[in-house]
Automatic annotation (TrEMBL):
Listed PROSITE patterns: DNA_PHOTOLYASES_1_2, PHR_CRY_ALPHA_BETA
Residue ranges constituting the Photolyase/cryptochrome alpha/beta domain according to the UniProt record: 4-134
Coiled-coil stretches noted in the UniProt entry, renumbered to this chain: none
Name of this chain's protein: Deoxyribodipyrimidine photo-lyase
Organism lineage: Bacteria, Pseudomonadati, Bacteroidota, Chitinophagia, Chitinophagales
Keyword field contains S-adenosyl-L-methionine: no
Gene source species: Polluticaenibacter yanchengensis
Length: 433
């Protein structure tokens, strides 16, 4: 036992404090060797090597490495295909078990099953834990044992099921880390990426923002949102900490955290949504998929100032205000009749806080084809949305400053687009009832 270690495999949980799987590993009775793998299979799919998300992960790892040094330990950072990396780790260390936190995406589940199988072949344990959610896929079910597909009853059951134990921080022991000199952290260039302009900072919960979140969250010029999307995506903040804070400060923000879990369990129970509409008959919509118009949307050149401002903000920063995300997504699907999957893929490439379940769920919501979607006949009018949420044009002026001098003719007229999309959707639904 003296030579045996357990590995704690960091993934979407890049923090030491209040980390469920890490806390369990540290209670195992063995010394804990922290490990992170830059997954070659995932990284190879990222075409833009100036990717702020990879840089964010890299900086978060550097922060973990510094913290571990204060406990006389370090983190082993690897680059490669996870299964191949683990085969090598098993030759380098006498491993009693692998500990990690559960992931719920289809490819991640497949990856973890392969690592579990390898561990068992090597006579080691494989233990995974709930950490990135309060309630996972089988915790909140209907009376008949089936998953919820409508948000409101899911949310009601979620809140009724919540106890303080669900959001209490997980206690951890620092003395159980393997004693190690600082292990090297490969540079970004070594894994094929470039340094970007993003700076990792330890996430904080800002009461001044969250207390009035419900009043100001829809006004993009105010920027009155938490900016915690990327922190929740990569686990640099604990969901338990966020929920505890939301319960004390703002129910509307709590509802947003519950939406996150709702979409995660939809993805788990209905993995077909990755490539197909949740409502199958919507897969028969005759999309126009005009490539030139898609390019104009991507570049923020639609002639609708708020749509263009949103896309320019996304392209420049990797962020986009949530209200504007709804406007630009509706515009692509409804005004241009371009397949929601095109927009979803573009957001996946650009968003700092890209998360498969939320991105997929929200795009299907905008297109009207999701599990709890806006009805197909709801077509956001960009002009009306501007009047309601950016009346003084402050957001538009910031991100689309040339909108008055370099005004491009609208790619399509709103009224024409609305009538066209209603006719196309109606025909597809009637023909496939």
């Amino acid at each position: 036992m003296d030579n045996k270690v357990v590995l704690f495999w960091f993934r979407r949980d890049l923090r030491l404090e209040d980390n469920a799987g890490l806390a369990e590993a540290l209670q195992s009775g063995y010394k804990v060797l922290p490990v992170f793998i830059f997954d070659e299979e995932i990284l190879s799919r990222l075409d833009d090597k100036y990717d702020r998300r990879v840089d964010y992960i890299h900086q978060a790892l550097a922060h973990i490495r510094e913290d571990l040094a204060t406990f006389g330990s370090s983190i082993k950072t690897c680059f490669g295909k996870p299964l191949e990396v683990f085969k090598k780790l098993f030759t380098e260390h006498d491993i009693a078990a692998v500990y990690c936190n559960r992931d719920y995406e289809p490819q991640a589940i497949k990856r973890d099953m392969a690592i579990k199988k390898l561990a068992e072949e090597k006579g080691a344990g494989f233990y995974d834990f709930k950490d990135q959610v309060i309630f996972e896929h089988r915790d909140i079910l209907k009376a008949d044992g089936m998953p919820y597909t409508i948000y409101t009853p899911y949310s009601n059951k979620w809140k009724a099921s919540l106890t303080p134990a669900d959001y209490s921080a997980r206690k951890w022991r620092t003395e159980a880390f393997e004693k190690l000199k600082a292990l090297p952290l490969p540079g970004l260039e070594a894994i094929g990426f470039e340094k970007t302009d993003i700076t990792f900072t330890v996430p904080v919960l800002n009461a001044a923002i969250i207390d009035s979140y419900d009043q100001y969250r829809d006004f993009p010029a105010m920027d009155h949102t938490t900016h915690l999307g990327i922190a929740l995506r990569f686990g640099t903040i604990s969901i338990r900490k966020c929920v505890a804070f939301a319960l004390e400060h703002n129910q509307t923000w709590l509802n947003e955290l519950i939406w996150r879990e709702f979409f995660m369990q939809i993805l788990f129970h209905f993995p077909k949504v990755v490539t197909h509409s949740f409502k199958a008959k919507y897969d028969h919509i005759k999309w126009r998929n005009n490539e030139e118009e898609f390019e104009r949307w991507c570049n923020g050149e639609t002639g609708y100032p708020i749509v263009d401002a949103g896309m320019k903000q996304l392209n420049a920063t990797g962020r986009m205000h949530n209200r504007v995300r709804m406007i630009v997504a509706s515009f692509l699907c409804k005004h241009l009749l371009i397949d929601w999957r095109w927009g979803e893929a573009y957001f996946a490439a650009k968003l700092l806080d890209y998360d498969l379940s939320a991105n997929n769920g929200n795009w299907q919501w905008a297109a009207g084809c999701g599990c709890d979607a806006a009805p197909y006949f709801r077509v956001f009018n960009p002009t009306t949305q501007t009047e309601k949420f950016d009346k003084k044009l402050e957001y538009i002026k910031k991100w689309n400053p040339g909108f008055q001098t370099d005004l491009k003719p609208p790619v399509v007229k709103h009224e024409f687009a609305r009538e066209r999309v209603l006719a196309v959707y109606k025909k597809a639904l009637e023909d496939n009832n």
